[in-house]
């Protein structure tokens, strides 16, 4: 039906039961975090406030703490670059951080391209676009492998030439130029061709962080799954709905353990009976 939004309808369940603010709590926190992260990187070149120097792939916090994307570091290693101590430390710090908060929390809480794809999804539902070319979500792992092989073959950090995150950040500071075609392609893919196509099926950065996320400490749990009313709000609002079923409908752990989970909290917002909560794997296993 034109103009019908599964996501908006799913959120309405939570809003009706809990009020607008509680029904959007985690969404508001995510957007604030994404905007703040982008703002911190842009504050230096635009306003001379150098909290962080660099970009999302490699940077330095307060001129002291090195930070590096582990996926970029892995590409540099397979490209034949001798590992530099500061780069190893930066990649290790980021990997440790996401091992604590959830690997793909990067996708839902930090990555600026997530705002682009969420905007495409919102417009897709507003326009009632139903075309959804099915892609195997494992495709992103093939793209990940391809990026590493390209780095090996060329001796470069190959993905950085087309990485939409880096292109978007550079474009916001210097003007995108031809780089707009990459960002526009991601937007149009999610708008016209496949639902959640980029983040859910193709992005190798998300695939890499998903590997880290398999062992992450912070988890969403269907703690009160016995109260579930089968309204489907959580599945409709989730960007990776397949991760919910084992925790909500299974007989084992109530923790959502898949590395594909972005720990976005959307299911917590949408659930009208508060089945879900953000918790810790360590706290649950200590019980």
From TrEMBL:
<dbReference type="InterPro" id="IPR011886">
    <property type="entry name" value="NapH_MauN"/>
</dbReference>
<keyword id="KW-0408">Iron</keyword>
<dbReference type="Pfam" id="PF12838">
    <property type="entry name" value="Fer4_7"/>
</dbReference>
<feature type="domain" description="4Fe-4S ferredoxin-type">
    <location>
        <begin position="218"/>
        <end position="249"/>
    </location>
</feature>
<keyword id="KW-0249">Electron transport</keyword>
<feature type="transmembrane region" description="Helical">
    <location>
        <begin position="72"/>
        <end position="100"/>
    </location>
</feature>
<feature type="transmembrane region" description="Helical">
    <location>
        <begin position="171"/>
        <end position="193"/>
    </location>
</feature>
<keyword id="KW-0813">Transport</keyword>
<feature type="domain" description="4Fe-4S ferredoxin-type">
    <location>
        <begin position="252"/>
        <end position="281"/>
    </location>
</feature>
<dbReference type="GO" id="GO:0046872">
    <property type="term" value="F:metal ion binding"/>
</dbReference>
<keyword id="KW-0472">Membrane</keyword>
<dbReference type="InterPro" id="IPR017896">
    <property type="entry name" value="4Fe4S_Fe-S-bd"/>
</dbReference>
<dbReference type="GO" id="GO:0005886">
    <property type="term" value="C:plasma membrane"/>
</dbReference>
<dbReference type="Pfam" id="PF12801">
    <property type="entry name" value="Fer4_5"/>
</dbReference>
<keyword id="KW-0812">Transmembrane</keyword>
<keyword id="KW-1133">Transmembrane helix</keyword>
<dbReference type="InterPro" id="IPR017900">
    <property type="entry name" value="4Fe4S_Fe_S_CS"/>
</dbReference>
<dbReference type="GO" id="GO:0051539">
    <property type="term" value="F:4 iron, 4 sulfur cluster binding"/>
</dbReference>
<protein>
    <submittedName>
        <fullName>Ferredoxin-type protein NapH</fullName>
    </submittedName>
</protein>
<keyword id="KW-0677">Repeat</keyword>
<feature type="transmembrane region" description="Helical">
    <location>
        <begin position="141"/>
        <end position="159"/>
    </location>
</feature>
<dbReference type="InterPro" id="IPR051684">
    <property type="entry name" value="Electron_Trans/Redox"/>
</dbReference>
<keyword id="KW-0004">4Fe-4S</keyword>
<keyword id="KW-0411">Iron-sulfur</keyword>
<keyword id="KW-0479">Metal-binding</keyword>
<feature type="transmembrane region" description="Helical">
    <location>
        <begin position="32"/>
        <end position="52"/>
    </location>
</feature>
């Amino acid at each position: 039906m034109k103009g019908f939004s599964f996501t908006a309808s799913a959120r309405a369940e939570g809003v009706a039961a809990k009020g607008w603010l509680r029904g959007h709590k985690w969404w508001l926190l995510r957007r604030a975090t994404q905007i703040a992260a982008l703002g911190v990187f842009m504050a230096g070149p635009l306003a001379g406030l150098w909290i962080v120097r660099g970009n999302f792939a490699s940077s330095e916090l307060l001129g002291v703490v090195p930070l590096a994307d582990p996926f970029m570091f892995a590409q540099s290693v397979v490209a034949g670059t001798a590992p530099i101590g500061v780069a190893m430390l930066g990649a290790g710090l980021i990997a440790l951080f996401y091992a604590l908060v959830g690997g793909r929390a990067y996708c839902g809480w930090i990555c600026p391209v997530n705002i682009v794809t969420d905007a495409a999804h919102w417009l897709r539902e507003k326009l009632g676009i139903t075309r959804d070319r099915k892609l195997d979500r494992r495709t992103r792992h093939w793209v990940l492998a391809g990026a590493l092989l390209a780095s090996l073959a060329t001796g470069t950090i190959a993905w950085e030439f087309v990485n939409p995150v880096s292109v978007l950040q550079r474009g916001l500071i210097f003007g995108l130029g031809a780089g707009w075609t990459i960002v526009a392609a991601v937007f149009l893919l999610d708008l016209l061709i496949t639902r959640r196509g980029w983040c859910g099926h193709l992005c190798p950065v998300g695939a890499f962080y998903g590997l880290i996320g398999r062992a992450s400490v912070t988890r969403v749990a269907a703690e009160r799954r016995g109260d579930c009313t089968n309204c489907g709000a959580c599945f409709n609002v989730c960007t990776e709905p397949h991760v919910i079923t084992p925790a909500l409908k299974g007989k084992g752990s109530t923790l959502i353990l898949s590395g594909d989970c972005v720990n976005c909290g959307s299911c917590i917002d949408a659930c009208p009976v508060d089945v879900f909560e953000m918790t810790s794997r360590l706290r649950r296993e200590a019980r």
